[in-house]
Predict the 3D structure of the following.
Amino acid sequence: MSDQILVTGGTGFIGQYLVRKLIAGGRRPVVTCRSDPPPESGANFICLDITDSENLEDIFRTVRPEAVVHLAGVTGRDDRDGTLCNKVNFLAAKHVLSVCTDIGVKRIVMLGSAAEYGHQPTPFRENMPVCPVSAYGISKANATAFAMEAHSQVGLPVTVLRVFSAYGPGQPSKMFLPQLVAHAIQNRRFEMSDGLRRRDFVHVRDVANAIVEALDTDAAIGRVINVGGGRGVELGSLAREVWERCRVDRGLLSINALSSSGDDRFDTEANISLAAELLSWTPGPGILELDENLDEMISGLRSELRAHKTTI
């Protein structure tokens, strides 16, 4: 792996785990972030709005990284017309890759998404056509297409990891699982759709491991690789399990109270054989297979809510 690594979005959910892993491995990455960096860290932090093209170029040309991990992006949950997703997830990513080409970066790993596949039969395989149905999925698919075209045309040494439903302590509170757990902990009514949709959950530590393996694997260059748990979990089953572990009144769990929309209307499940073949990577036990993973998230969120005396 290259010694000089630049990580965009390194204070985000996945970024924090990746940065800690890189530091534990003896590296001191340069990390860009939009807000003030954490007070204690072994990384070098630089404030950057990824959409600020001029500042981005200045930072990349000053640091001159040998490897780049591009994590910065938005989920688009409040982006009604897709403008923000296009600006951040596609146009900014395109600029990052173009700058990497100009300065001769040797390895690039960027994150794609299961949302690129859209409403297709599962399990999703990397050779399937993309069919996104949301602004978020479209923006990620466009970024992936640009990356693969750049590899084909100019030999850009890029790998795209299509990450499925990453979870773990520190997951953004607006996502389904933290919302579910917070409501259970606080004995509050939780409303959800019919619970029949299946999601492929992969622990964030496993995602960080996959990124590091991709950085160090020449065979991954120019490839799109799924990173998931390899199994779809029915959301209703997950909700009932959380409710059971938190010992909450079952009447407070309102399944089928909401309608599904956008990416929530279809299942996700990854075929992860290519990750095993190219990266020698496999995920740990599934979200309902290892009690410690889900319990860690429940206990972590309980401590966070107590410390801040707030609700999610």
In short: The chain has a mean pLDDT of 93. The domain at 5-167+201-227 is CATH 3.40.50.720 (Rossmann fold). Residues 83-103 form the longest helix (21 residues). The two ends are 39 Å apart (CA to CA).
